[in-house]
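Q: I'm building a small set of examples for a reading group on sequence design. Run inverse folding on the following structure and report the sequence directly after it, with nothing in between.
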């Protein structure tokens, strides 16, 4: 029953995060990435904090745990900010595909740090996945030199996300998902507010559409989906949870095509097929 529950929760995450890419793309058309991510963290913090206040016993007491939570929060902020910077200039579907190369990075990091044993199939999967990334990367470089930077930001965001997954499993798996995310959101708000004031100027677009965008990202994609993600990461193997997320970019590509009119190029399909095949091999039981 527990495994069935986890898979149902994962399906919910796939739907929320898959659709969230078109929501983020729409929001980034009217405001900068620093303000945008800061708004996301702020409203997610407001949505999730009551759960922590209801059960204060979940809050860790030792300094070492708090130091580790701070490190995790800094890496998480860098990951989401880097992803959103790339998303400003790239299609939502391709951005999702590149971001969800994180299972391949997780595998590379899990071998030395979590002592997971590599198999031939998994090594082939990693190689195939990175070939797919190269196909997408070259597509962007050949079409416009400006696109090489967004693709690099998206890959950097995927790498940082993988670091947070392995770091949580290694150093913070004893901390609950609510505490973990409340701290991540709080630290993110402080950092991004400072950066926004320095580079963009703090502002909030007071329109009904933008408010709905921020609420969807904050409540559903962050407060709910990210907490469920950390819960699954706490209960399942890091490689299995991260690699199973291959379905999310597929959903994002379809939503981008349906609602934003994004064209799915043949080369994009080839890159996606290679990446998903690689993720499958990494996740396949041997």
């Amino acid at each position: 029953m527990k495994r069935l529950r986890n898979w149902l929760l994962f399906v919910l995450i796939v739907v929320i995060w898959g659709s969230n890419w078109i929501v983020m793309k729409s929001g980034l058309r009217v405001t900068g990435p620093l303000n945008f991510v800061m708004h996301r963290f702020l409203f997610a913090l407001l949505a999730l904090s009551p759960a922590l206040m209801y059960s204060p016993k979940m809050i860790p007491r030792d300094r070492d745990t708090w130091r580790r939570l701070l490190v995790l929060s800094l890496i998480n902020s860098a990951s989401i900010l880097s992803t959103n910077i790339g998303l400003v200039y790239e299609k939502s579907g391709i951005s999702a595909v590149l971001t969800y190369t994180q299972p391949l990075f997780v595998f590379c990091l899990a071998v030395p740090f979590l002592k997971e044993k590599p198999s031939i199939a998994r090594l082939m999967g990693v190689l195939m996945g990175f070939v797919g990334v190269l196909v997408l990367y070259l597509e962007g470089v050949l079409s416009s030199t400006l696109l090489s930077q967004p693709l690099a930001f998206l890959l950097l965001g995927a790498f940082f996300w993988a670091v947070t997954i392995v770091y949580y499993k290694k150093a913070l798996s004893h901390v609950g998902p609510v505490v973990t995310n409340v701290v991540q959101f709080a630290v993110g708000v402080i950092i991004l507010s400072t950066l926004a004031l320095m580079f963009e100027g703090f502002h909030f677009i007071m329109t009904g559409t933008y408010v709905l965008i921020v609420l969807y990202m904050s409540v559903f994609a962050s407060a709910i989906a990210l907490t469920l993600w950390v819960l699954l990461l706490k209960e399942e193997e890091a490689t299995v949870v991260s690699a199973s997320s291959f379905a999310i970019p597929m959903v994002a590509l379809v939503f981008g095509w349906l609602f934003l009119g994004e064209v799915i190029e043949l080369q994009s399909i080839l890159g996606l097929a290679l990446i998903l095949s690689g993720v499958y091999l990494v996740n396949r039981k041997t």
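The radius of gyration is 18 Å.
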